[in-house]
Design goal:
It is built from 8 helices and 4 strands. The chain has 181 residues and is of the alpha/beta class. It has a single domain, classed as Response regulator (Rossmann fold). The chain has a 4-stranded parallel beta sheet with strand order 2-1-3-4, sandwiched between helices. The protein is globular and about 40 Å long.
Amino acid sequence: MRENYNDYTFFLNRPDLTRLYEEGRSVRKVSVLFVCHGNICRSPMAESYFTWLVGRKGLAQRFAISSAATHPDELGNPPHRGTREKLAEEGIPLIAHRARLLERADGERCDFILGMDAENLRHMHRILGDCRAKVGLLLDDAPHPRAIADPWYTGDFDATFADVAEGCRTFLEKLQREKLV
């Protein structure tokens, strides 16, 4: 009788192959969507930083990360020059990106949808309605929860980056504490 090489029991008796089997298995990814007004400043900064952060921690394969806008003002545009420059200054690779609009379907596709300020959150709830995703603000789990100021208006990409980085780190720590990754 021929052995079934697709059967996991075969691998249990072969420690050298067990690792290869486990690596090849599909792992459910945690889907995270970052949202801001136009999807050119804060949310692509968060998308790029969080992608870099989980990559450094060896968790990249556990996440699906993206970003979106609550308003159509900048649809199709690349990240703002200030975002590109600040990420480059910090040594964070910019994710290839064009601004897109948040859609109702994102609420069913994503596990977490994180906005940057109260106005974003109001528009997110309006667009998403009741949904499966956990919806909140990026700095909700920070020691001092607050909005992340829009550098489109403030011009302060340094402060925005500091807040985005803090929010991404505390969010990842929360996911790890809750054993979601």
